[in-house]
Design brief:
Elements lengths: L11 H10 L49 H6 L5 H10 L1 H11 L5 H11 L4 H12 L4 H11 L7 H13 L3 H10 L7 H15 L4 H14 L6 H7 L5 H14 L7 H9 L5 H11 L6 H13 L8
Helix pairs in contact: 1-5, 4-5, 6-7, 6-8, 7-9, 8-10, 9-11, 10-11, 11-13, 12-13, 13-15, 14-15
């Protein structure tokens, strides 16, 4: 999961929301490693899973004649340094409290995104209190903010893990829950601590909600042994929902799996003109890791010529 956008689309809130999605890196205890990128020059790469990368937001141009009156609004207006405000969040407990209190009532989308991004620099114990408050909201959008924020905290923290498990079992809105499932990052955990999360993700991957199936499949490759994923992914390659099919390809790639039984499904997806271009490219890239017979190789080369260089451009 094109990354290039028109200038209008590159307004800072969109990138700032990407920042809020970003999770802290951790040592992955259960991922067995990605396959080496063999023969990738023949087909363009497609993103396999939600990227967890912090980016500095690009700020919007301040409205003419509207001066920023406080640091957060100055940041929103492009008149304050993100780094300097993050440093203040880390070092000023009173200001953190002010920002957390302000988050309760602010409705402006840009200002709210700025508050959430800045508060990611708060200590985990304080962040958990604010996240729990957001999670108690009756609005799914607010709970989604909570789960996105929660996924940035270290899963090794027992308090974080407890709230993650609570969310996985109690969040009623599929879209809000998919935010957590897609952004949740593993860490160095004992098997007993990782198993409840892995079991919940497995249930979503086999469940009735397409958004959760699509979110859970790539996540499972980081929480379960690769040998347990093969059958789930083979079933998902035949899923009626195209997002689930794409997620299955991503999960196979992420786990370094190349089951022979997947070859036919990958050829079908790559050759299906009704399939989203991103799925076709991902399938073609996955096929580069297989031994193909002459007929399959002829089809593969034909598809290389047919598909545009970048998904969505043709």
């Amino acid at each position: 999961m094109s990354l290039h956008a028109a200038p209008e689309a590159r307004r800072w809130p969109a990138l700032l929301l990407a920042l809020a999605c970003a999770g802290a890196g951790g040592v992955i205890g259960y991922r067995l490693g990605r396959a080496s990128a063999d023969a990738t020059a023949q087909a363009p790469a497609v993103a396999a899973a939600p990227a967890v990368t912090r980016v500095q937001p690009t700020l919007r141009t301040p409205p003419a004649g509207v001066p920023a009156t406080d640091p957060v609004r100055a940041f929103v207006a492009g008149e304050a340094s993100f780094e300097s405000l993050v440093a203040r969040v880390r070092n000023d407990a009173a200001w953190r409290t002010h920002l957390g209190t302000r988050l309760r009532t602010v409705g402006d989308r840009d200002e709210r995104a700025a508050l959430l991004a800045l508060l990611e620099a708060a200590p985990a114990d304080e962040a958990l209190r604010w996240i729990a408050e957001l999670a108690a909201s009756g609005e799914p959008a607010r709970r989604a903010e909570a789960w996105r924020w929660l996924a940035t905290l270290p899963i090794e923290d027992p308090g974080v893990r407890a709230l993650v498990q609570q969310a996985l079992h109690a969040e009623p809105d599929p879209a809000a829950l998919a935010v957590l499932v897609a952004t949740l990052q593993p860490g160095l955990l004992a098997e007993e601590d990782a198993a409840p999360i892995a079991d919940a993700l497995l249930a979503f991957a086999r469940g009735a909600e397409p958004r959760l199936r699509a979110a859970a499949l790539p996540a499972l490759s980081q929480w379960m042994h690769a040998s347990a994923l093969e059958g789930i992914c083979l079933d998902a390659l035949r899923d009626a929902d195209h997002s689930v099919r794409g997620a299955a390809i991503a999960a196979l790639d992420s786990a370094g799996l190349r089951p022979a039984a997947a070859r036919g499904a990958l050829l079908r997806i790559a050759g299906d003109r009704d399939e989203p271009p991103a799925n076709r490219h991902a399938a073609l890239l996955a096929l580069a890791g297989y031994r193909l017979d002459r007929a399959e190789m002829a089809l593969y080369r034909e598809l290389q010529r047919e598909l545009p260089l970048h998904p969505g451009t043709g």
